[in-house]
Amino acid sequence: MQESNSLNSFGRLMTSLEGTSLTLKEKELISNKHIGGIILFSKNFESQSQIQSLCLDVKSIKQNIIIAVDQEGGRVQRFKNEFTVLPSMQDLGDYAIKKNNLRICHEIGWLMASELAASGIDISFAPVLDVDRETSSIIGNRAFSNDPKLLVQLAGNFINGMNEAGMQATGKHFPGHGGIFEDSHISEPLDARSYEQLFELDLKPFTELKDNLGAMMTAHITFPNIDSVCVSYSSLWIKEILRERLAFEGIVFSDDLSMKGAGGYSMGEKAIKSIEAGCDMVLVCNDYDGTMDVVDAFEKNNIQNSSKIIALQNSADIDWIELVKKDRVKDIKNLIKEMGRV
């Protein structure tokens, strides 16, 4: 199966790799027309130069591909060693408010995105826009704040910093994962709140920051008082609420379909449900058989590639060696050290 001839045509499946270099099987997989993205994890990382080489190898096979990572900061940071160890967004938010200096969020967003861009990464799935402090077992300190107004200000600065580095931001997990304890990686969470309740709290950051985001990622949560299926399979949530009511024009990703919260269907069925509900790209992580099931399902169902996804390719030309010499970078690193002592 060859890649489409269209210069802007991207496959609609993002998958993962096994190790720190490409296998022959993975090279063949990347060539498949339905693969439009690769997400990297800690298992794929040894050093900055190695990750840059891996990204170059992926893009030597296919230019029309997005390379992504979860480099949020705090407990969700896949690349370390030469990369700056970033604070959690809650610690960052608390510090920015204490110092009355929201610009700190801009600077850390810029540094995170600059380091990734200099290494060949197109997007970090960040920032978390969930409203939380300690309600959720999986969000918690990944969230900037449990005050939606503050969160919008803090995350807005972080997003602007990412954008300055040439990287589009991805808001997650739409419409909000912070209101329930359950972790959608290991359960199928239900949130019984009404749309009005969500609109007053969890939806505010997505609503107010939508024009600053290149993408949003859906939550594997069912809101039974709004729709009977989880958000990732809900055309009500994606097409009606996100696209029509909120007028969001960017890319919509499903969260990882390998997660328990995505339900008990086959991987191919999950992917088709997500695409039909309005997702532009689906994620299948750490599951080669599941990835191939989706490829087969996309082929059988004649799922067409997308020209929208090109908007997420990183536009920056940043040299790692020059980046680490910058006074601005040194100043931000010193700020992070100070933050850790407060």
Folded structure, characterized:
- This protein has twelve helices and ten strands.
- The chain has helices at 24-31, 48-61, 89-98, 103-117, 148-164, 195-200, 203-209, 235-245, 267-277, 288-300, 320-325, 327-341; strands spanning 13-16, 35-40, 66-69, 71-73, 76-77, 123-124, 170-174, 215-218, 251-256, 281-284.
- Residues 1-5 have low confidence and may be disordered.
- It is of the alpha/beta class and 342 residues long.
- α4 (103-117) crosses α5 (148-164) and α9 (267-277) crosses α10.
- The chain has a single domain, classed as Alpha-Beta Barrel (TIM Barrel), CATH 3.20.20.300.
- The relative contact order is 0.14.
* Overall mean confidence score, pLDDT: 92
- The neighbouring-strand order within the major sheet is 6-3-2-1-10-9-8-7
Number of strands: 10
Radius of gyration, in angstroms, nearest whole number: 19 Å
**Which CATH-level-2 architecture?**
Alpha-Beta Barrel
Q: Structural class, from secondary structure content?
A: alpha/beta
CATH superfamily, called what?
Answer: Glycoside hydrolase, family 3, N-terminal domain
CATH topology group? TIM Barrel
> Domains counted in the coordinates: how many?
1
The end-to-end distance, rounded to whole angstroms, is 55 Å
Compute the number of helices.
12
CATH level-1 class = Alpha Beta
Main sheet properties: 8 strands, parallel
Low-confidence sequence ranges? 1-5
Overall 3D geometry? Answer: globular
| DSSP strand content | 5-15%
Assign a percent range to the helix content.
25-40%
Series of secondary-structure elements, N-terminal to C-terminal:
EHEHEEEHHEHEHHEHEHEHHH
